[in-house]
């Protein structure tokens, strides 16, 4: 026990603390010495707190001028904390051990915990100093080689530096990897040269060998490839992740830096060091330790396979409805969105034509139709609707079909999308003269000098900055037109633009109906708070707040 491990205090009790219990007094006034109630309780049990030279109970009542002395031993607390960290030993002898580090465990803390683990002892049964030869980042899991003596440490470190210790890492990657040839798998040039953290990496400097273990179909990644990577040592996890992230089309699955997450995947990194092979420094025998991959790897693949099968079942029904019996298998394997392959998508019980010039209609957007029908059904006067960013026209046409007395205008900045909307209105709208289609940007709506009873809009709201930085959203939606998906200002760009012009377009007693991204509705309400107030909201089929109905505040004209 050293002085730097002792928090020492000497306190003279003031009159204001007369009659106060010592435990409460110390905890309230001297947390820098004893940080928590639990730690304080243990300090009293260890008799580290005294009054007038006598160990005290924490319920003792203080008197003015009592002398409190605290000798709080932080090393005991550290040992208690470290012993609580489980250490699973995969191999051990008198000279070395191999232990398993779980994902989510900080390596520096884990290394310290190994020293305190009672299982790692010398031949006399005493706890000893140990040294970790390799490390593994917090988000990953795997085998750690531990030396028990200084001489063994020196030999193992030399082996590790000289690439004489064989290490195998199991990883899950995005996409279908069909080759183990690094020249074909990894691009010599960088995919994103503008990224300051990108660097030129030779695959053969990082990898010795790639073994393909399995492929799992996936909704989000088309496929998940399960690989065993035999790696050079010293191992650099960052360079490994950068190699797959910048030099291939198959980033490692994860929420760590230089990885790409799967939708709804848990935090962490799909990388685990599952095999170590080396010559024992003392016995001169080959030591091979191999562990199963983490259970969450199989759970992730099983889940993706299940979701993919559910998707196939849904798509089979869509194909049946389309009247097509044969779909290009190559298009499906490469992840072509079925709506674009079929050229149509069902929305509000109608089949709408879609092309890659327009956003694919989502079931969540049907909440806008429900809200507009409810609002318009309560109005007695003329019912004029404007659909801003109409795309293939699915929202406006569905509303007009439900409200035969209404007329509408659909605007979009894409002439190609408007051509699709016009075709849909000719095929699906009973009276095509009730709708007009215009090329126009929403920021110029205030120049029209015309008013509507309802303005409906599903604006782009995916975070443009985040999508460019992480690539996950672009990877999921890269086949659809980016201008219909992504927005700046953390996704709120077009909500702000529309809020500035809506008062010049909507009647004083009219309504604005907006689709909102997940978790965005409250902030959208704040953006519109000056002149508009919430009238109602609608949840989508998954239970998320999706549709916001706004009306003009009574004191605003």
Question: How would you portray this structure in words?
Answer:
This protein has 557 residues and is an alpha+beta fold. The protein is 31% helix and 26% strand. Helix 12 (366-377) packs parallel to helix 13.
Structure in a nutshell:
This protein is of the alpha+beta class and 557 residues long. 31% of the residues lie in helices and 26% in strands.
Estimate the helix proportion, in percent: 25-40%
Q: Which structural category fits the helices and strands?
A: alpha+beta
Q: Major sheet: size, sense and barrel closure?
A: 9 strands, mixed
Q: What is the end-to-end distance?
A: 76 Å
Secondary structure tally: strands: 24
Quickly list its features.
single chain, 557 residues, alpha+beta, 9-stranded mixed beta sheet, 7-stranded mixed beta sheet, 24 strands, 31% helix, flat
List the helices and strands and how they pair.
Elements: E1 6-12, H1 22-29, H2 37-45, E2 49-51, E3 54-55, E4 67-73, H3 74-83, E5 88-92, E6 96-101, H4 107-116, E7 131-132, E8 141-147, H5 150-161, E9 166-174, H6 182-185, H7 203-206, E10 207-218, E11 222-231, H8 237-247, E12 271-279, E13 286-290, H9 295-322, H10 329-333, H11 338-342, E14 344-347, E15 350-353, H12 366-377, E16 384-388, H13 394-402, E17 407-412, H14 415-428, E18 435-439, E19 452-457, E20 462-463, H15 464-470, H16 472-477, E21 486-487, H17 493-501, E22 506-515, H18 521-527, E23 532-539, E24 545-552
């Amino acid at each position: 026990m050293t002085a730097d491990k002792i928090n020492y205090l000497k306190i003279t009790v003031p009159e204001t603390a007369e009659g106060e219990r010592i435990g409460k007094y110390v905890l309230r006034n001297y947390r820098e010495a004893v940080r928590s109630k639990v730690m304080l309780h243990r300090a009293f049990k260890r008799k580290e707190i005294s009054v007038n030279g006598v160990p005290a109970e924490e319920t003792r009542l203080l008197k003015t001028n009592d002398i409190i002395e605290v000798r709080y031993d932080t090393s005991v607390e550290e040992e208690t904390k470290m012993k609580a960290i489980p250490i699973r030993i995969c191999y051990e002898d008198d000279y070395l051990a191999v232990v398993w580090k779980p994902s989510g465990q900080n390596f520096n803390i884990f290394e310290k915990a190994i020293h305190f683990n009672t299982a790692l002892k010398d031949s006399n049964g005493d706890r000893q100093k140990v040294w970790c030869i390799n490390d593994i980042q917090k988000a990953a899991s795997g085998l750690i080689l531990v030396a028990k003596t200084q001489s063994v440490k020196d030999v193992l470190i030399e082996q590790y530096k000289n690439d004489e210790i064989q290490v195998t890492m199991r990883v899950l990657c995005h996409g279908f990897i069909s080759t183990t040839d690094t020249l074909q798998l990894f691009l010599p040039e960088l995919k994103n040269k503008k990224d300051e953290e990108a660097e030129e990496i030779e695959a053969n400097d990082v990898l010795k060998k790639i073994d393909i273990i399995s492929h799992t179909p996936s909704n989000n990644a088309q496929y998940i490839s399960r690989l065993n990577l035999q790696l050079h040592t010293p191992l650099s996890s960052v360079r490994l992740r950068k190699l797959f992230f910048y030099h291939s089309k198959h980033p490692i699955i994860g929420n760590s830096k230089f990885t790409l997450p799967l939708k709804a995947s848990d935090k962490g990194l799909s990388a685990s060091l599952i095999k170590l092979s080396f010559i024992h420094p003392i016995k001169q025998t080959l030591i091979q330790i191999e562990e199963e991959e983490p259970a969450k790897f199989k759970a992730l693949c099983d889940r993706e396979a299940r979701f993919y099968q559910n998707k196939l079942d849904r798509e089979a029904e869509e194909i049946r409805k389309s009247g097509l019996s044969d779909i290009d298998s190559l298009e499906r394997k490469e992840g072509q969105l079925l709506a674009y392959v079929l050229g149509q998508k069902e929305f509000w019980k109608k089949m709408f034509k879609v092309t890659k010039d327009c956003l694919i209609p989502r079931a969540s957007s049907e909440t806008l139709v429900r809200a507009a029908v409810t609002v318009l059904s309560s109005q007695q006067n003329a019912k004029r609707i404007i659909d801003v960013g109409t795309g293939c026209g699915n929202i406006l046409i569905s509303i007009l079909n439900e409200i035969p007395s209404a007329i509408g205008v659909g605007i979009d900045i894409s002439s190609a999308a408007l051509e699709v909307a016009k075709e849909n209105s000719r095929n699906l709208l009973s009276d095509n003269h009730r709708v007009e289609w215009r090329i126009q940007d929403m920021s110029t709506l205030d120049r029209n000098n015309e008013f509507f009873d309802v303005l409906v809009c599903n604006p782009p709201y995916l975070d443009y900055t985040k999508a460019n930085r992480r690539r996950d959203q672009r990877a999921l939606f890269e086949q659809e037109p980016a201008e219909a998906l992504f927005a700046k200002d953390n996704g709120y760009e077009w909500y702000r633009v529309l809020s500035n012009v809506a008062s010049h377009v909507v009647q004083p007693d009219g309504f604005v109906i907006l689709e909102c991204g997940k978790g965005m509705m409250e902030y959208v309400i704040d953006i519109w708070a000056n002149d508009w107030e919430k009238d109602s909201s609608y949840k989508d089929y998954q239970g998320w707040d999706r549709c916001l109905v706004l009306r003009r505040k009574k004191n605003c004209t």
